[in-house]
Amino acid sequence: MASFILNNPTYVGVHSASEVGKQAGTSETTVIRFCYTIGLNGYAQLQKELTMYLFENNTNSTLGNYVSSKEELFKEQQLCEKVMGQTSNQIVRIAKQVNPKQFHNTTKKLHEAKRIYIIGSGASSFAAQWFQFTLNMLRPNVELVQTETGMLIRTLQEVEESELAIVISLHRYYKEPIQIAEEFLRRGVYTVAITDSNVAPIHAFANESFVLQQPELSTIDMMPALIAFLNTLVVGMMSNDQDYYNEQRVKYDDFQNSFIANRWS
């Protein structure tokens, strides 16, 4: 049990004692008994301790990797060109990882979905906000999932199978978005994960996943490529019905211009 936890701390942090026991080749009872044996109050405390450990260590490794990977660039004469060139190469490299059939399927679902829910926490929240802002200008019924308990319960009560959830889960893999994704999936909502690892815990709770892998473990470095990928999803969605999205653009621009004129007149 100890070996499994040491080798799979992220998995243990976001899965039940029963699921962990099954993966470790033992039982839920043994998992809980193990927690008591090492002086914890129960499985919930083990998860809390692991979450804090992962947060503290992954924050350091992410920021540390970001800084260390840039140190050799500090004396570059063409610093701007070099850094932006690396970002450009990263975007091209990630684009080559995307399965065209899977991409087409997801963008078609983005177009057809009655409602789209977008989920992201921590570093992922910035990308989630950008994605919601952009989609909301082009089509109705796009929601950034609020994690405040009352609002979240209301959202989960109202979801339908004709809707779509996009979950952005990057390194550190916050527990909350994973749990929300599990609830969406359980309610029949088609759930698409965007992550940075083939072993990220979000895979277990998604109908399909896009894995944007990079050599360095840094969510900071990942952000430009992630936004580029989300932008590409938006373009792919619009390609399903050009006339409709042109119409949506005109309506948005007309209302925005009218609103600004009335506000400042």
Automatic annotation (TrEMBL):
Residues 1-57 form the HTH rpiR-type domain. Pfam families: HTH_6 (PF01418), SIS (PF01380). GO terms for molecular function: carbohydrate derivative binding; DNA binding; DNA-binding transcription factor activity. One of its GO terms (biological process) is carbohydrate derivative metabolic process. InterPro entries: Homeodomain-like_sf, HTH_RpiR, RpiR-like, RpiR-like_SIS, SIS_dom, SIS_dom_sf, WH-like_DNA-bd_sf. Keywords: DNA-binding, Transcription, Transcription regulation. Residues 106-243 form the SIS domain. This is RpiR family transcriptional regulator. It comes from Ureibacillus xyleni.
